[in-house]
Amino acid sequence: MKQLLLLSFVLLITLPVSAQKQSKEEKIAIAKAAHETAVKCVENKSFVIIPSSYTDKDGVIETNTENTNFISYETTNLFMQGEIVCDNKYTNIAEVTEYTPAFDKKGNLRLRIVIIGRMVRGTYVISMRTNTNMADVIFTPQSGTIRKFSGPVVSVNTTKYYKRSSPM
What we know:
By secondary structure, the chain is an alpha+beta fold. The chain is built from 2 helices and 10 strands; from the N terminus they run αβββββαβββββ. Helices cover 27% and strands 39% of the residues. The protein has an 8-stranded antiparallel barrel with strand order 1-4-5-6-7-8-9-10. A hairpin with a 5-residue loop joins strand 9 and strand 10.
């Protein structure tokens, strides 16, 4: 009886350790697949970034829980909605005048998007590290406050976000 109890105790200790190794490898594979999908979305000019966190006007990092704040590149236009993303509360549509993706030696992506719209003009700089789909975004408007936020780069077809009608 004591041997059976000892054997079960040893199994309880060793099983989680072996499961952690598999889950770590699985996490790496999932992150790599998410990165490859995000890169394809950027190359196809069909992606959405919903901020998971942002820096407010006082420099404090806050968490975003709403799907009404986003930027999305759809076909030829960039849509921006929410004060976190574009410094106004409207649904903005803008023409993209410059779209420059660049990769460094390590595979990190740096994307520069220059936009001209009716209510918003400026430059988005999106940085995404290798093996992750999380992007750090800096929006520098022609006039107004610089916006900083981060969130995952995902396909337009696979994410749910609330875009108001009648963009400006």
